[in-house]
């Protein structure tokens, strides 16, 4: 067997580094340059041979370095800054401004400001006051919008295309930064960026998810979704930082780990799990910053830190709101409700002790002022690291373990703090949910039962219809509540209810601003309810409720009319059976029979008309005693109306419009408007059975309104027009041989004027509206 023999002389002049380098070739302690002079010998041969290793360098294309040939030494961060592939975007690739759906109301104000500035530049006039006023309005609207953001709106801001990325923040907060590449397994995932940088002279290991600033970069960065290579690169840098004692700062901004077939084959789950296990054993401080969206295990793989800090509009979730809505509500349109239920915002996660702090953002989001946002992140990193650097290794590991151990923990049987108990919600009755199919079947059965009862002349019990209507009302109320939640209007509705209840408790008039808010919310709900996930169910139940309500209303009207008919017939029989009426009726009947088919004389006709009027008056008095109003239909008045010329009718219509317009103008005056509102409030408070005091107050208010209206109307020239038109109509009727007294029936001579009649009509309308 061949052996290698060597003498100590062969190692003279050999350095320690040569010895170490040679160990990788399988020959321990023998440098490569002495390997060629090694003496080979064997048991069967005494000859000696000299062996040499010769290597030739093959000529290849010169490597294209990522930095220029003449780098500027004055560049911030030094020459090593050129190592990064992350460069400022050229003008033609810079992202355009993007307006989110809920930000569109601000566009009108922006356009107005731009138009006024353009006008000022073109005309040379001074519009500074108008511009300042519009800018103040814009800032106030922006503040109102961004201080009342819903969870789904924060999700949209976290996904904003122009939101600053990990490298944007790193280059803003570090004095020096060198990017480190590769996982040493054959690939460098661009979706995760790692590197060493300094903040205020302190060296850190940075790693984070990197999204693109435009479509080209997003494709290159895989939209911030790492592969297993990216997590293994981060793991390599964690070991590197742990070995050299560098604190670790991670930036989280990913919708989740990339979940294609290739990544699963390469062990995506194993790579994430290995990172989770390793991070709990690192002996250096770790701080994680959520700068956008943190999705599931893809975010947690670099997020097992001592402190988790979130930007104000960042989100952190186990499943996206759209995915959650598709699973629970079977529709992605329920994403707003899912976002609220998941509690994924920075404020909610701080309450649940998952996040340890919130970094403020400027109005409009981090993309509105990236430099200011980066400065806030830098301050948060310095404060957190100052606290964590004071801990020794054992305390640091325990702190990280306890942070995650306390998440989701609770103890049973502990007494509730009285302060918390006061604010706890009252126990609600369980909501029994009924499917649309069950409701539809029940309604169909009820309708069939009604048809069968109608054919057999049997009345359907009212209790069945009433019970079904109440059931549908509860279902419709529940569907409305779910639609309001899904549209993100629940908080605004609760606030408006509180304001409205305060007004009712104080018996005050509703403020116009509150009316505007209610109208605006109602319009917004009406316009957007069709996009709610339960719209079809709500519409179906609402249609069924409307149909049943009509059936109930028709049934009640028919019963009421039948009862009234019986009552009127009974009263008519009683009147006709009275002795005096009976005697007159028989006398007239005998006189008609004696005429023997001849024309009735004038006296007999008058007697008939007189008796008819007497019976009508008696019947009208009897009906009024039942609390009913009697309306006498005058067919002759219609004939007179047909005889009036068209031009006169047009004048009447124009006069009526002028009277209505004048009354509306008078009512719009502040004093009279307040009285009308007060009258509405009094009528509403009095209800259907007002007491004596309420009746007196209502009557007094009506009288005051009538007097004010009459005074205002008398001061106008409408009265003269009314008299002239009345005289013209009288002449027309007389020339057409109209009936005497018909005009007087329309324009009574009891001293009342046209304005008093208008006042009566107006006050009656106000009362009915109230």
Describe the structure.
With 770 residues, the protein is α/β, with parallel strands linked by helices. It is 57% helix and 7% strand. The chain is built from 31 helices and ten strands. Helix 11 links the parallel strand 7 and strand 8. Helix 18 runs antiparallel to helix 19 (462-486) and helix 20 packs antiparallel against helix 21 (512-528).
Could you provide a short overview of the structure?
The protein has 31 helices and 10 strands.
List the main descriptive attributes of the protein structure presented here.
eight-stranded mixed sheet; disordered N terminus; disordered C terminus; 31 helices; 770 residues; alpha/beta; single chain; two-stranded antiparallel sheet
Ends distance: 116 Å
Beta fraction? 5-15%
Residue share in helix: 55-70%
Count of DSSP H/I helices: 31
Gyration radius (Cα, Å) is 45 Å
The average pLDDT is 76
Helix and strand composition category: alpha/beta
Counting DSSP E segments of at least 2 residues, the number of strands comes to: 10
Uncertain segments are 1-48, 60-67, 428-432, 737-770
From the spread of the alpha carbons, the general shape counts as elongated
What is the topology?
Elements: E1 3-5, H1 16-22, H2 32-35, E2 39-41, H3 105-123, H4 128-146, H5 151-158, H6 166-173, E3 176-180, E4 192-199, E5 202-209, H7 215-220, H8 228-244, E6 248-254, H9 261-265, H10 268-279, E7 286-295, H11 296-300, E8 307-311, E9 315-317, H12 321-328, H13 335-342, H14 346-351, E10 357-359, H15 370-388, H16 393-405, H17 418-422, H18 436-455, H19 462-486, H20 490-505, H21 512-528, H22 535-576, H23 579-594, H24 602-625, H25 635-643, H26 646-667, H27 670-686, H28 692-714, H29 718-735, H30 742-746, H31 754-769
Parallel strand pairs: 5-6, 6-7, 7-8, 7-9, 8-10
Antiparallel strand pairs: 1-2, 3-4, 4-5
Helix pairs in contact: 3-4, 5-13, 6-15, 8-10, 12-13, 18-19, 18-22, 19-22, 20-21, 22-24, 23-24, 26-29, 27-28, 27-31, 28-31
């Amino acid at each position: 067997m061949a052996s290698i023999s060597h003498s100590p002389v062969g190692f003279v002049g050999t350095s320690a580094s040569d010895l170490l380098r040679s160990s990788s070739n399988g020959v321990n302690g023998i440098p490569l340059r002495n390997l060629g002079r090694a003496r080979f010998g064997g048991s069967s041969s005494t000859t000696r041979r000299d062996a040499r290793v010769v290597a030739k360098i093959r000529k290849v294309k010169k490597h294209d370095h990522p930095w220029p040939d003449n780098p500027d030494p004055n560049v911030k961060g030094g020459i090593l800054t050129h190592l990064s592939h992350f460069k400022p975007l050229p003008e033609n690739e810079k992202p355009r401004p993007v307006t989110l759906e809920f930000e569109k109301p601000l566009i009108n104000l922006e356009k107005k400001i731009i138009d006024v500035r353009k006008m000022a530049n073109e005309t040379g006039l001074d519009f500074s006051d108008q511009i300042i006023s519009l800018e103040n309005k814009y800032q106030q609207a922006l503040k109102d919008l961004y201080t009342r953001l819903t969870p789904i709106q924060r999700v949209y801001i976290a996904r904003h295309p122009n939101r600053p990325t990990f490298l944007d923040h790193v280059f803003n907060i570090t004095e020096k930064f060198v990017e480190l590449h590769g996982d040493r397994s054959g690939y460098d995932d661009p979706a995760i960026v790692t590197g060493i940088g300094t903040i205020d002279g302190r060296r850190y290991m940075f790693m984070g998810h990197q999204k693109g600033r435009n479509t080209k970069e997003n494709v290159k960065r895989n939209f911030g979704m790492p592969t297993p290579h990216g997590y293994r690169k981060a793991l390599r840098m964690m070991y590197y930082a742990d070995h050299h004692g560098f604190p670790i700062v991670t930036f989280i901004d990913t919708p989740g780990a990339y979940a294609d077939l290739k990544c699963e084959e390469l062990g995506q789950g194993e790579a994430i799990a290995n990172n989770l296990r390793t991070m709990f054993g690192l002996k250096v401080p770790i701080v994680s910053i959520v700068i956008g969206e943190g999705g599931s295990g893809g975010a947690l793989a670099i997020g097992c830190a001592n402190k988790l800090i979130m930007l104000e509009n960042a989100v952190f979730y186990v499943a996206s709101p759209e995915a959650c809505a598709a699973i629970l509500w079977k529709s992605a349109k329920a994403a707003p409700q899912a976002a609220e239920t998941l509690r994924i915002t920075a404020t909610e996660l701080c309450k649940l002790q998952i996040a340890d702090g919130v970094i403020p953002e400027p109005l409009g989001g981090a993309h509105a002022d990236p430099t200011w946002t980066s400065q806030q992140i830098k301050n948060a990193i310095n404060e957190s690291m100052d606290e964590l650097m004071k801990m020794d290794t054992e305390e640091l590991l325990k702190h990280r373990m306890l942070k995650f151990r306390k998440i989701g923990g609770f103890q049973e049987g502990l007494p509730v703090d009285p302060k918390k108990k006061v604010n706890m919600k009252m126990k609600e009755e369980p909501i029994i949910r009924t499917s649309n199919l069950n409701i539809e079947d029940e309604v169909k059965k009820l309708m069939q039962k009604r048809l069968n009862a109608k054919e057999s002349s049997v009345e359907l019990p009212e209790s069945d219809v009433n019970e079904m209507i109440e059931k549908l009302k509860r279902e419709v109320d529940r569907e409305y509540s779910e639609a309001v939640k899904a549209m993100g209007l629940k908080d605004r509705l609760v606030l408006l209810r509180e304001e409205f209840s305060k007004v009712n408790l104080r018996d005050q008039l509703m403020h116009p601003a509150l009316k505007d808010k209610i109208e605006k919310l109602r319009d917004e709900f009406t316009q957007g309810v069709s996009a709610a996930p339960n719209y079809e169910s709500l519409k179906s139940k609402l249609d069924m409720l409307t149909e049943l309500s009509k059936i109930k209303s028709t049934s009640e009207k028919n019963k009421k009319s039948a009862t009234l008919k019986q009552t009127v017939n009974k009263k008519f029989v009683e009147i006709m059976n009275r002795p005096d009426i009976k005697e007159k009726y028989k006398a007239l009947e005998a006189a008609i029979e004696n005429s023997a088919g001849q024309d009735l004389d004038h006296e007999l006709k008058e007697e008939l008309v007189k008796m008819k009027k007497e019976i009508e008056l008696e019947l009208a008095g009897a009906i009024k005693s039942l609390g009913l109003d009697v309306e006498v239909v005058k067919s002759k008045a219609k004939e007179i109306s047909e005889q009036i010329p068209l031009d006169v009718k047009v004048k009447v219509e124009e006069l009526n419009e002028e009277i209505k317009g004048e009354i509306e103008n008078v009512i719009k005056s502040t004093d009279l408007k307040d009285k009308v509102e007060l009258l509405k409030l009094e009528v509403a408070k009095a209800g259907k059975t007002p007491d004596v005091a309420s009746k007196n107050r209502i009557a007094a208010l009506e009288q005051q309104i009538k007097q004010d209206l009459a005074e205002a109307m008398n001061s106008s020239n409408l009265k003269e027009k009314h008299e002239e038109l009345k005289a013209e109509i009288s002449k027309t009727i007389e020339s057409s041989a109209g009936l005497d007294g018909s005009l007087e029936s329309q324009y009574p001579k009891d001293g009342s004027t046209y304005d008093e009649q208008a006042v009566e009509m107006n006050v009656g309308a106000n009362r009915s509206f109230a």
